[in-house]
Amino acid sequence: MHGFSLGRRALFAATAIGALAAPLIMKRAAFAQDAAGKGAKETPKATTGGKSSSFKLGDFTITVVSDGLRLADKPSETFGIDQPPEAVAARLEKNFLPTDRFANGFSPVVVETGSEVVLFDTGNGEAGRAAGTGLLLEGLRTAGYPPESITLVVLTHMHGDHINGLMDGGKPAFPNARYVMGETELAFWKDPARVGSPAEGGHKAVLKNVVPLVEKATLIGDGADVASGITAIAAFGHSPGHMVFRVSSQGKDLMLTADTANHYVLSLQQPNWQVKFDMDKEEAAASRRKVFDMVASERLPFIGYHMPFPAVGYAEKLDAGYRFVPASYQLYL
Questions:
Q1: How far apart are alpha carbons 18 and 16 in whole angstroms?
Q2: Protein fold of 6-326
Q3: In 181-259, which ranges are continuous DSSP H helix?
Q4: Residues 19-52: pLDDT tens digits?
Q5: Which positions of the chain have pLDDT values less than 50?
Q6: What Rg value do the Cα atoms of the chain yield, rounded?
Q7: Cβ neighbours of residue 259 under 8 Å, at least 6 residues apart?
Q8: From CA 16, how far away is CA 89, in angstroms rounded?
Q9: Of 301, 303, 315, which is closest to residue 109 (Cα–Cα)?
């Protein structure tokens, strides 16, 4: 299935979901051909931005889009901040990784169900483009999803690298979309009590990017059905209302783990190590264990927002944590 050209994939999808969705599929194909004809925008060498990868999950089509890649120094100041820097360096070296630098990718996901085109998270948006991120729209177009084709945007949580792409040029980036967001998460970030606290920057970003869209939003909690075959699961800690999502179609299941684990080695192999950006570090560690115990015990594929692109893999129990096993061909058969 993955060897199909876009035109063949579009034709397959139109046949599978019937006449109701056929106009959308044909529009996607035409748009993608037009975008391809104009050539891809050049991006910095350190980014994967604009790339995409697709596979089938039952009757659903899953597409991972890279919003870009950010390079940073001093991994121990972000991951394992409660550990001696030497312990973090040793873990990285053992896994063939540099000890002084790391790369952080951003991977929003599209789930095309046949009746909905659902986008999970929106990347860094305009604010990230100077640094080689904020390339979601480019990647969506190349994959055959013009912004107008997105019918539902789901926010796993409201950190800037997930919500800054909601707006583009001062207008909603996805003009035909409805929205789904966590009630707990929204309540925390829009609360004026955030002013004067370390969360003030996030509060302002939510007021700018999220609050204007709330009238078109459904607020959800643990166990909510987002769309047919897509269920929300609370995984609080990284943020006050952080959520993950289980995607199911025709007996096939996938977990979208968002920011439950932010590094494929340091957060998975050592799930109890503290991460700078986890707001409640103990709760975040508990959520990591809960989510990845589920992923490992059920042998579920998962997509992690900050896993190495295309961000799809499995988690195998390893000592006190988990080993990331990148997907190879098993989802393409």
A1: 6
A2: Metallo-beta-lactamase; Chain A (3.60.15)
A3: 183-190, 200-209
A4: 334 344 344 444 444 444 444 434 334 456 789 9
A5: 1-46
A6: 19
A7: 156, 157, 159, 162, 238, 239, 242, 277, 304, 305, 306
A8: 50
A9: 303
